[in-house]
Structure formats: structure tokens, C-alpha cells
Amino acid sequence: MKLNIKMTRKKLAILILIIIIVPIVYNKLSGLVTGLIMQQMMKMPKEVVVDYPVNTNSFVQAESTGRVEAKYSIDVMARVAGFLQKKYFKEGDFVKKDQVLFQIDPQEFQLEVRNSQANVNQYSALLLNSQKELDRANALIKEDLVSHSYVDQSLASRNQNQALLDAARQKLQLAKVNLGYTTIKSPIDGRIGKIKITEGNYVSLTSGPLVNVSSINPVYVTFSLRTSDFVKMLRASDKFKDVKVKVQFEGGRWYDNTGVVDFVDNQIDKNSGSIQMRATFENPKGWLVPGDYMKVSLISPQKFKYMTVPQACTKGDAMSGYYVWVVDKDNKAVRKDIKVSDEIDNHWIVESGLSAKDRVVVAGVQNINVEGQKVKILTKKEYEKKQKEE
Predict the structure, then answer these.
(1) Domain span including residue 269
(2) pLDDT (tens digit, 9 = 90+) per residue, 88-120?
């Protein structure tokens, strides 16, 4: 009985040992087998899709968002003090240059003109009389009938009256100017805004704007271009002189007239990385309203030739540089460093590093780990089918 118990314990120990060892051996064997399989798979050519760089010869385009601005926007101010008697326009109307807008009470200024005119008349009479006295003194001095001091006094009196007359005339001229300022006119052709100070109020130089007048033809459209778009457009034009500028309304309709670039800022904005620009548009019907936002499209006057590759097939970054994998005649992967300058529709413009005959890996880039690696070229359809199956 005791012998049977000992045998049972031995068998139990063996069983426990088997239970512990078998999984360890299995794991090691499976790992070894998996490693061998992976090695064999690594030796198998990786499947990729290749394509040639795209050579394009087309007009360069760039887009931005712009804002319509009046070429002239003028706040109409009172230049003399007085009560605002009347306005002669309807808010929102189109007005012409020199059209009367407001009338300030002119009575005080009319009186000033009359007083100044009276002073001119008075000093004119005094001057005439003193001139006659001087003429008589000059005639008498020749016959030695008056002293030289008398002649000098007559001359001084004439000159004094002349100076007083000149001052009176200037004061009259100023009075007439101030009287003219009581009639406030539009400084430009344009659309008049909402009145800010109504009739009956006392206005002066410090009262602020009475109303604003903004020109409507032509108008400006200001916008910013990214540095890349700016360089791209500059290369395809003569310093933007011949670039066509189009604007689009919110509903999708394009404005009929083409704009002309008339201003390019002299530096890139450090915060936005863009440069401020402006185009002038003829606006005879007033469809472009100052303050409105528009989609802006710029088109180069001449075609620009460039080579592109998809951004998705490139590796690296702007700091260290970009590169692509190219498949040589032996179906081996070759790394080629490229220099890019700009981005168009998710493609890089390639400045150097590639030729038109290079077979660039455009799909399966992740399968290439080292230069010289064997690859298997598939068509795009074959590759997509394989991806779906996996």
C-alpha cells in the first residue's frame, strides 16, 4: 500500500514537470518558427506602386480672402462753429463732389464780411488821402516851401495806411472764407453714410464727423498671400504688373471686371507668414461694397513649367530635407534627396533631385526600410486589391 502511494507521487511530479516545461518549449519553438517565417518574408520583395514625376506647364493660381475698401473715405467735418441749420441729402445716397450737404447758420459770418468790407473801404479812403498829401509834399519840397520832416511824415502816414489796408483786405478774405465754410460740401463723388450729428445741434471743429462719404469707383480689395503663393506667383509674372485678379461674391458668382495689383507690402508679416497686397477694381455699378469680404483669385499671365510628386510619397521635413524612394532597373529601392519649393494640390514642386524618367514609389513607401531593398512593382489596382484582402 505504501509503494503505490509513492508511485503516485512520482507520477504526479512528472506530470507537473511536463505541465511546466511543455509551454516553455512550445513558446521557444513557436518563436523560432515565427522568426524563420519572418526572415523568409523579409527576403521576399516588398510590393509597391511606382509612378513618374508629373511635368506640368500651366498658369499659376493662388487664392486668398480679401476685403473691399473705399479708395477715399472722408469724414465730413465742420470747419467753423455754429448751429447746423439744414441737411440737403438722404442717408445712403450717391453724392457728387461739391454737392451741398449741410448749412451752418451764416448770419454771424455775413456780418463779419460786411464789417471787414467796411474796414477795407475806410482804409482805402485814408490811403488815398495820405497819398495825395505825400504827392503835395513832394511837389512843395522842390520849391523849398516845406521841410523834409514834413515829407517824411507824409510818407510814413501813407505807408501806415497802406499796411492797414492790406491787413483789412486779408481780414475780409478770411471772413469770406469762413462764410464759405458755413456751406458744407461733399469733397468727393461717392456714397454718403448715416448722419452722426443732426440739424439743430451746435457744431465746431471739435464736434467730430458730421457724416462719412466713401468713394465707390474705383475701389480697393486688400488681401494677403502666403509666402509660398507669393513666390510662386512672382516667378510667373513681371512683379505682379500683369497678374489678373478676380473676386467672387458669397453666392459663388464672379465679378465681371478684373483687378490690377497696385500695392505689394515690403515685408512678410512675422505672425501670419503672409504678405499684404492690394488690387484696384473699376466699380461703375457699385456692386463692390466697402467692408464686404470676397474670395480672391490670382492668375499668372504666363504658364509656369514645374515638376511635382505627391506629398504622401516623400519623407523627411523642411528642416532636414525631403527624400523619395526610386526603383532602379534591378527593382531595388534607391533613396533620392529632393529640393522642394512649394505645394500645389497636395503635391510638392520639385526643384532638383529627380528626373522625368525616375520611377518614384507612390504607394507602399512604408514597406521600404533600407536602400538596395528588393521590391515588387504592382499596378495601383493590384495594390489596392491586396490591401483590401489583408
Answers:
(1) 61-71+215-304
(2) 999 999 999 999 999 999 999 999 999 999 999
Structural domain includes residue 144: yes
Tens digit of each residue's pLDDT (9 = 90 or more) over 30-41: 666 555 554 544
**SS3 labels along 151-200:** HHHHHHHHHHHHHHHHHHHHHHHHHHHHHHHCEEECCCCEEECCCCCCCC
- Could you give the CA distance from residue 161 to residue 154 in angstroms, rounded to a whole number? 11
Residues 281 and 323 in one domain: no
pTM of the model: 0.61
Integer CA distances (angstroms), 349 to 249, 322, 330, in order: 31, 12, 28
Name residue, grid cell 458730421.
210
| DSSP state letters, 250-298 | TTSPBPSSPBEEEEE-SS--TTTSEEEEEEEE--TT--S-TT-EEEEEE
221: domain CATH number is 2.40.30.170
CA atoms lying within 13 Å on the CB side of residue 384? 4
